[in-house]
């Protein structure tokens, strides 16, 4: 449910915080007081189209924030939040949206920045807004099949899940078949291209680690003369005549001569001896390396050409030799499929044919259960319409037959809701209903049935009772109250019958202070409720008659709510 709403610098609202209760909350007030501004704020908070025009005059930005409480861990919004990495703490979801002067928005959910698209998806799971000429899912032909499936319940759900699992396999194999069934010219081009690429990579005889070895070899060849000269100088310094090793040898012999005389020289003598032999071995290794060193300019050219060839392959097929070889394996697989496509097409076609046999059985089962549910739904809708004094209306779920079966994730069915509101008139699509009053009652009838199936946290009715009066007004009031037993309902109304059924009654009015207009909201309780209902009946002047009528209406509403909600 929507627990709290905070609005700052929005339209004529300076700053407003309102807490909502469970059940039915009715917002009343004179025309132009700002009732619809509250609904506009909720609509924008849940991802509606924003504009800088909503920002209060002389303010820098409009700020909207709403606290929603979700006690059901299986509510659809929980998964949506998990998919975008947002956690729910203490069963709370906080939506926030700031609209700046450029018209751009900053959106957050539980403190995390989100796109307007994500905010809209989350908002659609929490709030369902209905106006006299707007009813979202109920007025969308494409959504009717989902509404029927929700009404059908678990019995259809199991069949649908089984069908959809099979349909996934069907789509996967169809996609593979479509790839293999491209036109011959495209396939020929691909075969030529893949063959060339595979041969080019295979002929290159690439070896993992080869490039690093070649780079090291190139480095040595490019610095051959420098290395040779330095090694020669080092060798001469150690072993040439009258050079380092001779002097160290003399020192070693002298220390050995006195080691027996002076015990302190024993360790030093051994260290000098070790150094002498180490240097001697190093000198021999240098000599061997120098004898084997021979500069080959052709070898440098070969190494550079090989590295250039590897670089060319890297530009085409991957950033490393490993990636190039992986790419070769991939296109070799694709090439094998293309070369042997006739055989593969035959196998895939047979596989798809076998799946289609099962798919049509599952789809037909799904259709049978939908048609059975459609009969029950039609009866339920007709009962609701009779209670709303549309006893002459006829409702039906129309299944549209297609010449050639077309599978989709919902089966083979294409359906929509049809209605006739008057005797002798043909059934027409629900979306083609013209009368505002009839549309309102039709929407309430559908909402009465679907509200417990849709899992929407809060439902908002924005003056859906416009154009009705008398017994129809009372029936609408009772219907809205009934819906509030399954979901929190926020309702803007000019009908005293609807206001009387409220569990929470909020009155909105305008005040002027310091040459500025402000919207003020207050909760109406006890005697003030009767006064507000009296004002709604008679206008500005409250009479003893209207006041008494209001009290009787509140008493009647209290008794009717007990019956409607089985309290």
Automatic annotation (TrEMBL):
Q: Which GO terms describe its cellular component?
A: bacterial nucleoid
What GO MF terms are annotated?
Answer: ATP binding
Q: Which Gene3D superfamilies match?
A: P-loop containing nucleotide triphosphate hydrolases (3.40.50.300)
Work out whether the entry's keyword set contains DNA damage: yes
Coiled-coil residue spans: 156-190
Annotated InterPro entries: DNA_recomb/repair_RecN (IPR004604), P-loop_NTPase (IPR027417), RecF/RecN/SMC_N (IPR003395)
UniProt keywords (A-Z) are: ATP-binding, Coiled coil, DNA damage, DNA repair, Nucleotide-binding
Looking at the record, the residues that make up the RecF/RecN/SMC N-terminal domain are 1-512
Question: Which GO BP terms apply?
Answer: DNA recombination; DNA repair; SOS response
Transmembrane segment boundaries: none
UniProt superkingdom = Bacteria
The entry's family comment says:
Belongs to the RecN family.
Q: Please describe what this protein does.
A: May be involved in recombinational repair of damaged DNA.
Protein's name in the database: DNA repair protein RecN
Q: Which gene is this protein's source?
A: recN
